[in-house]
Design goal:
This protein is mainly alpha-helical. The chain folds into two domains: about 80 residues; about 55 residues, Arc Repressor Mutant (Orthogonal Bundle). It has a two-stranded antiparallel sheet with strand order 1-2. α1 runs antiparallel to α2 and α4 crosses α5. It is elongated, with a radius of gyration of 26 Å. It starts with a helix and ends in a 10-residue tail after the last helix.
């Protein structure tokens, strides 16, 4: 994605508005457009990053990353690796979990409604919790390198 054309269009828009004034206003707008070139580019990258986060949340099992390559942003779809499920890995660890009686009863009721064991329900709940934390960890992070 070539961001330079968008930056140039913003500079031209600024110049067109300034052209409504006198020659000094037009010259000031031209100088201002050059001075703001990196700020325009940065704001466009921020908008791309925000859009990629929103799309990633809507798609669920993929992330969309904004990567800089040669100073130009690229939108890259990254498939999240599914977390190993109970059928993917042998149950090899045992823990003792102390719950309030009301929470235990609620978990048992929900597991029964879904037709699975309490243990399986808790494992699935933990995996969902870890996956949602993983998606949020990407948050508003911008990775890559900058060039000025």
């Amino acid at each position: 994605m070539q961001i330079e054309g968008y930056v140039q269009a913003l500079q031209e828009d600024l110049a067109a508005v300034a052209a409504l004034g006198d020659e000094n206003t037009a010259r000031a707008a031209q100088l201002l457009g050059v001075a703001l070139e990196s700020a325009f580019a940065r704001r466009l990258l921020e908008a791309l990053t925000e859009a990629s986060l929103e799309l990633g949340e809507q798609l669920g099992d993929v992330r969309i990353e904004v990567r800089l390559s040669g100073g130009e942003p690229q939108l890259v779809v990254v498939q999240d690796e599914p977390a190993p499920g109970p059928s993917d890995e042998a149950a090899s660890a045992r823990i003792t979990l102390r719950l309030p009686e009301s929470l235990k009863a609620h978990v048992e009721a929900v597991a029964a409604r879904e037709g699975i064991s309490v243990n399986t329900w808790i494992v699935h709940a933990l995996m969902r919790g870890l996956q949602s934390r993983h998606h949020r960890a990407g948050g508003r992070r911008l990775t890559g390198f900058g060039e000025s």
